[in-house]
Amino acid sequence: AQSIARLQQATSAAVSTLLKVMVDATTPPSTKVRAADTVLNHSVKAMEIEDIQVRLAELEGAVANGQNRR
């Protein structure tokens, strides 16, 4: 649990690093593309997880309402 918390805290610094690499004029284009690809891929995954969490909460609510009617 402690390791997970540390990783979550480091996420902000990791994203900042990727964004700095993307906008740095001295960064080689191939490195910029890799940083951008990483940001985009992780953004998509985050959106997918958020969507799943919303859908799961809705399903859990529906199940709870169904059980309360019995």
Detailed description of the structure:
The chain has 70 residues and is an all-alpha fold. Helix content is 89%, strand content 0%. It has two helices and no strands. The chain is elongated and about 65 Å long. The model has no long low-confidence stretch (mean pLDDT 93).
Give me a quick take on this structure.
By secondary structure, this protein is mainly alpha-helical. 89% of the residues lie in helices and 0% in strands.
Number of helices: 2
List the quaternary state of the chains: single chain
Q: Work out the number of β strands.
A: 0
Overall SS class: mainly alpha
* Topology as a string of helices (H) and strands (E): HH
Distance between the termini: 38 Å
* Coarse morphology: elongated
What fraction strand? under 5%
- The average pLDDT value, as a whole number, equals 93
> Sheet bearing the most strands, described?
none
Low-confidence stretches: none
| Alpha-carbon Rg, integer | 19 Å
Estimate the helix proportion, in percent. Answer: over 70%
Any descriptors?
70 residues, mainly alpha
Question: Topology, please?
Answer:
Elements (H helix, E strand, L loop, with lengths): L1 H22 L5 H40 L2
